[in-house]
Structures are given as C-alpha cells and as structure tokens.
C-alpha cells in the first residue's frame, strides 16, 4: 500500500494531517506569543507597570508588614533612609515648611505642658514645705520666697482707678520704652473689658480676675477705689495671689484719701511707681528673663531653666530643713486663721522676727481679742494700721437712716461676712438703687455688694420717661382734648400705675395770637382738661401742679412741633 | 509735669459719625473691632490749655444705638464729661439727644456736656435738621458745634470746649 502512494502526495497528506492535529495548538501558541509580547511591553513601560501593580502592592505590603515587621524594617531601612536623606538634602526648606505647622506646634505644646506641670509640682512642693515649717532658721518673707522658687515673670504692673479706668501708676521691666504700647489706653480698654464682662454676664459686683492670652496672664487684684493689673508670663505660684493682695491693701491704706478724692491728678501717686518697680524686680528672676528674652542664647535657655530650677529646689529644701521655729509658726497661723473667719475681719500680717505688723480691719471686740492673743503668744504687735470697724448694729442704724432719706420702705437689710457687706431690699427705681449703694459705700470700710437691691417697678420708670417725652396737641382756640389724644393718654397711663408718679407738672401752652388774657385762660383750661384724665385714672390731686406757658411769636415751640399743646414733667 | 487725666464719653445714635470725629482728632487709637466686640473703644488726646495744666483726655467711644437706654451705663461711670453727637441730616438722631443726655446724667450727674451736630458738610444753611439742632441745644442750654469729620470743621474746637468746661466748670 505504501508503494502505491506517490511521494509528493504523501507529503501533502502529512501536512494536512498536521494541519488537522496541530491547528488548535498553533492558535494557542500564537495567542501566548502575543500575550508575552504585551507583558514585555508592559514591563518595559514603567507607567503601565505601576498602573498594573498599584491595586495589589498596597495590600501586599500591608500584609507583609503585619506578618514580619522586623524583616520589612530591615529590608526597607537602607532604601528609605537613603531616599529621605537625599530628599532632605535637596529640599531642606520645603520639608521644614511642610513639617513646621504640625511638628512645631506639637513640640511647643508638649514643652509648655511639661514646663507647666513641673512648675506646679515645684510650687506645690514648696508650699508644702512652708506650711510644714521645716527647720529652724528665720523664715524668708514671701517676696523672697517667690523670687527663689517661682519660674515666672511679671512684665508690667498697672494701678488703675476703678471707676474712671484712668491710669494712676505703671511699672514695666521692658528696657525699650517704645516696645510698650500706650499704657493709658491699655488701662482704659482693660477697664472697658471688665465693665463689658460684668454687663454681659450680669455678674453684679463680681468682676473679672484673670485674662489669659497665649502664655501671658493678666491677673487683676481689686481694691475699693483702684485695682492692680499684673501682666505675667509663666505660672505664678499659689502664694502670688496673697502677695498681690497685700500690695493692693498697702496701697489703699497709704493712699486712701487720695484715691477716694481722685479727680484726674496723678502726681500724688508718683511714689507708687517705685513700689511697683521694686515689686517687679523682687519677684523677677533674672535667669528666666534671659531664657524668655534671649534670642541669641535660645539653644541654652531651656537647659539653664532646668538646671536653675533643680539648684533652687535643692537650695530651698536645704533652707527649709534648717528652720527650727515650725511650732511657733504653726501657732501663729492657727491664731490668725481663727480670727480671719470672724465677721467683717479683713487683715494681713507682715512678720519680721518676733515683730508683727497688722494691716486691715475688724470689729472692736475681735480686734481686741486677737491683739491680746498675739501678745500672750509672745509676739510684739504693731496695730496702727489695724483699724476698728463700727459694730454691725451701728451700720444697720446708718442704713435705716439712709433708707428713710431716700424713701425706701421697708429699709434695706445689711448682711456682713468676713470680707464684704451685702445690701438687700427693694427700691422704687434705678436711680434710688444707685444712690443708696453709693451713699452706703462711702461710709463702709469693706467692699460692698449691692446687686441684692431690686427695683420694684421698672414700669414706673417707663411711664415717667414716656410722659416726659409726650405732648398732647389742640386745635386753635380750643381746650377740648380730642378723642384720639385722650385714648392715647389713657393707654399710656395704663402701662404703669399713676400712683407711682411722685410729682407731675401739667403745662398748658398756647401761642400769643389774640387776646393775652384769653390765651392764658385757654392754656389753663387745656391743662385742666388733661388733669381730669389723670384724676380719673386714680392719681392724687396733691401731686399734680398746673402751669401755663404762652409762647411769644419769636419764640420757637421747642422740641415739640406746635405751641398749642400740653406737655409734662413727671418724677 | 504730669497732665490731669479725664475720662470723657462720646455718645449718640449709630451712624452719626462719632468714630470719624475721633479719627480726626486723636493721637492713638485701638482697632475698630473693639467697638463691635465689647461696645467701646478707648482713644486719647493731650490738650494744652493756656494758663492751665495739660489735660490727657481718655475718650471712650461708646457704640451707638438707635434707641436711648440701650448702652451699658457702666461705661459712663466716672466720666467727667460727654460729647453727644447727632447727624444733622437725620432728625431722629437730633431728637434722641435729650434722652441720651438723660441716660448719661443718671450715672454721671455732674458730667459736662457739649453737643456736636455732625455731617454739617451734607446739609445746607437752612436745612431743617440744622435748625432743629440749634433749637434743641438752646432748649437744653448746652454749648453746641456744627461739625464735619470730612473736612475737620469745628472738630478740635468741640473737644477743646468740652475740656475747658471740665477743667473750669464756672
């Protein structure tokens, strides 16, 4: 059979057979070749390669990092480190700009927080040491104590007249006077802000004690006629308040009359400037000034601050450990505390060795008892500035007299606590409320809180104001109150109670046209027509006065548009 | 020599030109945002009067309201005087002078007052506002000036008159 088939036919048949058997494989091979070429092209084109790998690489990396963090870090560190180094070297400014808003703020906040905590811890520690009275040496005064241990900085002190907001005295530790904004205007604005906060939050006699701005605090210590404002950077210790209260109290004692009679002359207060400067330099710690202000030494400043604090802490510890009069000190403090809680008592104590100087006031019996107790305890006491308060009964009598003068029934009530007087009661109007408070405050040696005085009838004020700005108009030659005017008047009077009007002048007016006698009579009749309405509404006739006014031709009609009218003056 | 310090208030309806008058007159001024924030802005001006000590006027520019009685009276405390401003082209602002003065005197009963009829550049010589302002000032028996913050007319004279009234009440 083999021999019967020609050779060319045999080859053709083989090809056909191959065609039949391998056609499918050929097509597959061709497709694989195309795919391979496509893959090679994709691999050689970086952008296309990234596009392909992007969906999987993030998941893969995450999975890998989670499975073997150490290995990944080891593998990536050299590459990443090098890449970051190169990038930083090439674009330092750009990287700094990008990172500063985030890292700068975070670092600053952390450092400030850490410093604040450290300062508070030190302050608490020192306070504990002082109250326990370690050791036996003489106890340093509070200013010295503050200077030694408190890392804060008093930048400026203002003494400001409380009522007017005018600056009485000022001290600053700034060397460059141009760097200080106008202190008179600051005093005014500070007072305005205090008034605003009192009004906005209906705080009555309570007031603003502290304003915080970034790392600056404005601490306010209020006295009867003036207040002190301290601009402080850093964190003052818990005893700072006590020290500034003392300062305020001394200023009020020394300048009481000048402060009370202040009318714009600031010369009497010139010496206070020196006192305030001494205060700043006494509290001021030079090392911290350098740390705060030293631009050139900025790098060293934090180290100096920490080193200084540690040295001071050790020194303070050593100092207090050597003190030996703890028991005596505790006895004094306990005695003072006992009398500080007495009604109306308000005083401070300066101590030099065994000598005590008392500043302040207390009721006579308490004052006598305290002085006796201190002498019994072996202290030598100077009580010249420790004044006697009148007894409460005297103040209440005074208040009753004042209430009578101002027609306040029932009389206002007086309540006293350790540091202030409170007035309560009801008054007919705002003006009486202010008068009562001012007159009592002028006689009171203690701060006065008077937001307990309530105005009983705000409607009365409204009624009186409306009447004083009201006029009723008449047609020429007529004294007849037209129905519209009468209706309006009755409506106005029904806003309040006419019996609340203490005095009313009804003025009938006319112009000078025609017979003068007739005009006078017309004006009187107009007044009477209006009076009738008031009487019908229940007003007592004895409180009403009728007047007439004839306007000459040259005379203007005043604030009202015509001369033919009736107007009022109500109180 | 230290000047005598005095607090004065600048009062009047909203939009009468108080702040513009201040800008014409004072040396130092805070940002206007204080006015909208707390309702008052403090400025200062030192005035030399012949034969008298210098006076440092601390001027409290109190935010205006269209209704008298809306301003916190606390801002008037301790003021030695007030310049009460109205707009000569707005009758309502002239009519409100009296109640504003009454509010001020409730707190500062001895405070001296000078009236300023502002925007004089906007109204003619026989404008009803100008006549009403003069009449009101005469009725109230108070010194008055027709002022213009735009061209400076009478601005300094108005402040100086107030200053003299405060220093020499006679």
UniProtKB/TrEMBL annotation, chain A:
Pfam families: OmpA. The keyword Transmembrane helix applies. Gene3D superfamilies: OmpA-like domain. Residues 461-571 form the OmpA-like domain. GO terms for cellular component: membrane. Keywords: Coiled coil, Membrane, Transmembrane, Transmembrane helix. The chain crosses the membrane at residues 303-321. InterPro entries: Bact_OuterMem_StrucFunc, OmpA-like, OmpA-like_sf. Residues 22-49 form a coiled coil. PANTHER family: LIPOPROTEIN YIAD-RELATED, STATOR ELEMENT OF FLAGELLAR MOTOR COMPLEX. This is OmpA-like domain-containing protein.
TrEMBL record, chain B:
Pfam families: Ras. The keyword Membrane does not apply. Gene3D superfamilies: P-loop containing nucleotide triphosphate hydrolases. PROSITE patterns: RAB. The keyword Zinc does not apply. InterPro entries: P-loop_NTPase, Small_GTP-bd, Small_GTPase. GO terms for molecular function: GTP binding; GTPase activity. CDD domains: Rab. It comes from the Bacteria. Keywords: Nucleotide-binding. SUPFAM superfamilies: P-loop containing nucleoside triphosphate hydrolases. NCBIfam families: small_GTP (TIGR00231). This is GTP-binding protein. The lineage of its organism: Bacteria, Pseudomonadati, Calditrichota, Calditrichia, Calditrichales.
